[in-house]
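Weekly structure sync, notes
Attendees: PL, DS, HV (note-taker this week)

Item 1: MALT1 protein
DS walked through the input record. Source organism listed as Loxia curvirostra. Sequence as pasted into the shared doc:
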Amino acid sequence: RLCELLDNAGRGWRKLAELAGAEKRFRCSVEELEMCSLKVLEPRGSPTQCLLQLLAERDCTLRYLLGCLERMGHEQACRVLSSAVQDVIRITVQPESQVVAEGTQVSLNCCATGPPGLVYQWFCGRQEVPGATSPELVIDTATPAGQWYICRVNCGATFTFSRWAHVQVEKSSPSSASGYCPSMAGLQILRQPRPCRLAEGDTLVLECRAIGNPPPQYQWFRNRRPMEGAQAPQFQVKLVTTAERGSYSCHVFNLFHEVWSQEVDVEIGEGPRQTSVTPHLLCSQESPHGCTSRCVPSVATPPSPILAATDKVALLIGNMHYLYHKQLQAPIVDVHALGALLCQLNFKVVSLLDLRKAEMQMAVNEFLLLLDKGVYAGLLYYAGHGYENFGNSFMVPIDAPSAYTSEHCLCVQQVLQEMQQRRTGLNIFLLDMCRKRNLNDDIIPQVGALEVTANIVFGYATCADAEAYELSQDELSNGIFVTFLKRWLLEDEKITVLLDKVAEDMGTLEITRGRQALELRSNLSERRALTDPIRPPGQDESSARNLQWAKAHVLPESQHLCFDCGVTIQLGFAAEFSNIMIIYTRVVAAPKDITKCEARLTDIPEELDVDLKCTNKESPEELGSPLAPVWSLGCPSCCLYSRICGLQKLQQELAFTVCLQYRYQGMDDFVEERQRVNVGRPLIAKLNLQ
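Item 1 (cont.): predicted structure, written out as tokens:
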């Protein structure tokens, strides 16, 4: 109804956008307003609906929207919206999770605003709590079992739920409270961290639990220095290396008190010395003497075998043009640079830009089809927005909402688990993204246990709870990580040694010192390198992989179109990425009585990302792509160029119209002829990622 009222009115959606933009977070950019206005060209498009979607993703409330309509003086629109606002129930105070001592009482609170006569009902799990019908719930914690609580607020048939709150009950004992200082009344440590001895590749878990009022906060220290991103009761590091050895302690504090846990030692060494285990599973190739005498039967060291891959495959994803988040510049340049270098190392490379959640998942699924036993698969490079929660890394697709969670993103550890099932020889993850904590996401994903394969390498562009930056250089913009990575990528070095050199180089950059530093995590036990040769296991397996890879790289063949007026047009194609194609048209023959003619593309499928301002341009540079100097080398001169993005969205074969406009000698008016062209499913569209 609002769309009908605001789409075409003088006091319409543009005025609404102007008034809503008075608050900075609701302000729409020029590009976003243009996107809204272009909706009128769609059969059922609505600029107002597009604007409302933008405001909704930025958490604009109905009350704020109603206030904007009132300032517009649009009484009819106000009446439509005010009836909806009156029925809205909003939680203003959410219940908080707590850790309490056994035998004490705890209070949970939930407050809401809305129409008169709000009714509260508390639940423990799925069961109603009898008599718990007020905003405050008082719980007797006589039993040590932890429980989850939630509150429902309703008025008639309209209702909403609060967040879940977990009440964990701890038993207090003299041993568990050994770090408790009597002078710090109101804050007590119930569970102390314990010393441990681990092998490289194990998971380090330290835990410190406390109770207090206000609720306690935590900060972990290693060697008496605070650790970034370690502000939870449980501190966990997966795939530990010797870099994690040291003395650990936890600083527990609240608004009024503070207390320190006991300091414990974490030792990282070789694996457990079980003589029944094969020697190469116990120690790395660089340290064979860490095994027992039974593992090393003779003094002579056997020659190292020449390592080879059955194939080498890489998936490169760069997300730039986010719908609801800051736009990025570097991924297009970084993905292209990395792809070109990996091709020199005989990698099969699939490079994709600007993927939505479903498209990212399908791209990973197709990537997995290229993998098999012994394949150096796993080069997965991702550049874009990201975050890290509870030790898991998440890649953010371009359609993620403003308050995204793990539900809207791809978990890197889940991808690794699927790669392990393919029995790959080397799994490399290069994650060029931020690793800040996502405060909107409190869900711990259940990834499952990873296999012990000693072939995993993680190269993070930055440390935990830190950001990754872009480096502007003239027209091109590189990420800091790839700026230094491409210097070393072709070196014949073990991949971990190569990344160490990249880390050293990054440390020399003054502008990011103290803000961004490469982090390497690895359990690689052999000297695996990106330069290792390829030795296919069998013709059938190799051919199947080659066919699957080739599907994503086949361009339509160049063709000539003959028009009734006697003009012949060449239609040519070039690939910028696996999902971005350049189409160019060129006049190759024309009758003498035709003085001017040109061929333009029209009627391009709506599902593709085609900017009308970047079609039918007289020079490659006008397309707005920083890579134009690269792909235009193979294109003829005197052409009109169009850039077609998002080929993974193609739902059917790519068909468009070539519109020829020409003028005869001595005439002022142009004549027009059209031909419909179908070029099938080019590049990544062949894989049907939809």
